[in-house]
Amino acid sequence: MYVSMEKMLAKANRNNYAVMAINCFNLESAYATISAAEALQAPVIIDLLMEHLQKHLPREYVLPGIIQMAKAAQVDVAINLDHGKDKDYVLASIKAGFSSVMMDASAHGYDENIRITEEVVKLARAQGVSVEAEMGNMGAVAGDQWTQADMYTNPEEAIKFINDTNVTALAISFGSSHGIMPPGFVPKFDFSIIEDIKKATNSPLVLHGGSGCGEANIKRAIQCGINKVNVGSDVMKAQADSVFEQQEATRNLEYVDLMTGTMQAAKEMVQSYIEISGSVNQANTTH
């Protein structure tokens, strides 16, 4: 069933688990993600990154097919525009059919972030579309641009932001970074940031950059109040590794079979994160 994030995250918030949000970039990755969720009877969010839609396959080609998958799914599926940094693109995405959007104005000053987010929330809610926003800044593994402590979300500002904007969910920075973590490295989280914001607002909170954060970190973050966990890099790496392994085994493998193999690798990785998130058997009970 195709839904917004509103009810699924509200239920996750009430029952102290998280919904997995998987970065997908084509029909195959979305199909694998939904199949994983159906196998475990879990709600799921398909995250389509604005940058991917602009640089690779355009929104008008990718979105309609994934919406059809979501409508036919045996579990609740939301499709969320991830890191929408341009307000006009975000608003156009609402009209294009996204059930949820992220208005990421975190690069702006605090007051401007609130102003932009408030405007999007007002227009989105009129269309039944949920809105995620971001406070604080996220770094990246690439180029050693790791998230530093001075980039963490200020709890007092986040509390005011949530109260002023009435966003569906807020992405916060407390130690994770976007990208594939080096082997053996596990980031250190400041869990008090989650606890302080959750205690004051009881609002759904989001962990970005979940890849490679470690099962213990993610589970504790959920216990503290995270209700949406974004993962992309680990799933894409599983698919890339599958290509390498299949090509090593059979160099003349037909492309359609090669792609099918990557879908299985993606499905298995998504299932592993669904199990960590606590959302197994939480499907179809949000209405």
UniProtKB/TrEMBL annotation:
Query: Pfam families, alphabetically?
Result: F_bP_aldolase (PF01116)
- Chain segments annotated as transmembrane: none
Q: SUPFAM superfamilies from the entry?
A: Aldolase
Q: Which UniProt keywords apply?
A: Lyase
EC class (word) = lyase
Annotated GO molecular function terms are: fructose-bisphosphate aldolase activity
Specify the superkingdom. Bacteria
List the EC numbers from the record.
4.1.2.13
CDD domains of this UniProt entry? TBP_aldolase_IIB (cd00947)
Name the cofactor(s).
Answer: Zn(2+)
Q: Which PANTHER family match?
A: D-TAGATOSE-1,6-BISPHOSPHATE ALDOLASE (PTHR30304), D-TAGATOSE-1,6-BISPHOSPHATE ALDOLASE SUBUNIT GATY-RELATED (PTHR30304:SF0)
Name of the protein described by the UniProt record: Class II fructose-bisphosphate aldolase
Its taxonomic placement starts with: Bacteria, Bacillati, Bacillota, Bacilli, Lactobacillales
